[in-house]
Write a structure and sequence with these properties.
Layout (H helix, E strand, L loop, with lengths): L1 H4 L12 H9 L5 E3 L10 H7 L4 E5 L17 H4 L17 H16 L5 E4 L2 H10 L5 E4 L14 H8 L6 E9 L7 H9 L6 E8 L11 E5 L4 H10 L2 E3 L9 H8 L4 E4 L4 H4 L6 E4 L5 H10 L2 H19 L1 H14 L14 H4 L22 H14 L5 H19 L1
Parallel strand pairs: 1-2, 2-3, 3-4, 5-6, 5-8, 6-7, 8-9, 9-10
């Protein structure tokens, strides 16, 4: 709803959402649950206004609610000592914010979170909870949350049938890499490519799902690149067709792709760091290795040589991750939070689910339909060309003059449409 009033180009300068706030106030809601706010605003002002009227919970998909502007502090020492301010090393990275506004933005967030009626922070992993507790102001409430994945959609299927349907080689060992932007700044694509090249050869294939701004960075033989996949059921088919999922990311607050892959019976190899220690159960749903040079490649060589180990990890991955991240686990964790905060009566009150929501449970009589349109459609060649040209000139950052120009272009376009 917020994005309808504030497209990403306007988020840096938008704090008020009169249409969305009026719609929420008009409803008879017991709780407002909010996700990623930084796509529409750079503050917690709306969360503070709503929390003054009814309970609000913020799901920490990242650490944006606790910083001056960034979603991932990346080990920044200033945030825990001096605090966020104009000396921020990455003000031009998404979510961007002018240097002179960063200190005030963090102060405003801390004031909202420290209030007695401030939003509850729901942490998506043990690592996220520990970082939130370290960064939150006194009085802020941090509670763990088990996210619910659509386990009825992401589930194992016959691998041979999936490969025939997708046009993949029947007998090759297929290694999957997946992200919305495969060579994004936090995905560590250099480490990933080095590890994958160590096992490239006859009988080994690679599948790359997602946008790749610079294809040469992941140049591999026997590579299948379907691009972005916006349909959950289609995405699950690609996961299930592969033997192993690999990620070199070091900054995940949880790690969505290892869970989705594991639910489809495909184990994950990853670094033992951050939220990946929750999404990958070492020795059960995959392998975790130290963040050391060559560690990812060494483990990959071992796993490729042991197909029985891969099959065993894949079988256990489904069982373990369904119990940890299924709708029932989410309901139990929400019930606990609501009782602790007094949102459910202690004597017999319970969470109730509408029939449509019950369809998301894995054994529902009428399963919910798989979601579609989860990511933007593949961009056309002109947009891809412009994106690459921009990255060559400016990198992935967007300086203030470019952000202002984009903002006014959006404003003028919307005013033209209104007339």
């Amino acid at each position: 709803m917020l994005a309808d009033e504030s497209p990403p180009a306007a988020a840096e300068w938008t704090d008020a959402f009169p249409v969305a706030e009026a719609a929420i106030r008009a409803g008879d809601h017991d709780l407002v649950l909010a996700g990623n706010l930084h796509g529409a605003t750079r503050s917690l002002a709306i969360a503070g206004r709503l929390a003054a009227e009814r309970p609000v919970a913020l799901v920490l998909h990242d650490l944006f609610p606790l910083t001056g502007r960034c979603a991932h502090p990346r080990g920044c020492a200033r945030i825990e000592t001096i605090g966020c301010d104009a000396a921020c090393p990455t003000p031009d990275e998404y979510p961007q914010l002018g240097r002179h506004r960063i200190a005030g933005a963090q102060d405003g967030k801390r004031a909202v979170l420290a209030r007695r009626d401030g939003p509850i922070l729901l942490a998506n992993s043990a690592w996220t909870a520990s970082r939130a507790l370290a960064l939150a102001p006194p009085g802020a409430v941090v509670a763990p949350l088990a996210l619910a994945f659509p386990t009825s959609v992401f589930r194992p299927r016959d691998r041979s049938s999936l490969r025939r349907r997708l046009g993949l080689p029947a007998d090759d060992l297929l290694i999957l890499v997946s992200a919305v932007v495969l060579d994004g700044p936090d995905k560590n694509v250099g480490d990933l490519a080095d590890a994958l090249r160590r096992v490239a050869g006859p009988g080994v294939g690679f599948v790359a799902i997602g946008r790749l701004d610079h294809p040469a960075r992941l140049a591999l033989p026997n590579l299948f690149a379907p691009g972005l996949i916006a349909d959950e059921a289609h995405l699950a088919a690609w996961y299930g067709a592969c033997d192993l999922h690999v990620t070199a990311s070091r900054l995940e607050t949880l790690g969505q792709t290892p869970i989705e892959a594991g639910l489809c019976g495909t184990p994950t190899l990853a670094y033992r760091t951050a939220g990946l220690t929750s999404s990958v159960i070492d020795g059960v749903s995959g392998r975790l290795v130290p963040v050391e040079p060559g560690a990812l490649g060494d483990a990959l060589v071992e796993l490729v040589a042991d197909r029985q180990a891969l099959a065993r990890l894949g079988a256990f991955a489904r069982i373990a991750l369904e119990s940890r991240f299924g709708p029932a686990s989410c309901a139990i964790s929400l019930d606990r939070v609501f009782r602790e905060r007094g949102l459910l009566p202690p004597d017999g009150g319970r969470l109730r689910f509408a029939p449509a929501l019950l369809g998301h449970f894995p054994f529902a009589a009428i399963p919910a339909a798989a979601a579609t349109g989860l990511v933007a459609a593949p961009s056309n060649p002109l947009v891809r060309g412009l994106r690459r040209a921009k990255q060559r000139l400016l990198g992935r950052r967007l300086p203030p003059w470019a952000r202002r120009g984009l903002y006014w272009a959006v404003r003028l376009r919307s005013l033209g449409g209104a007339r």
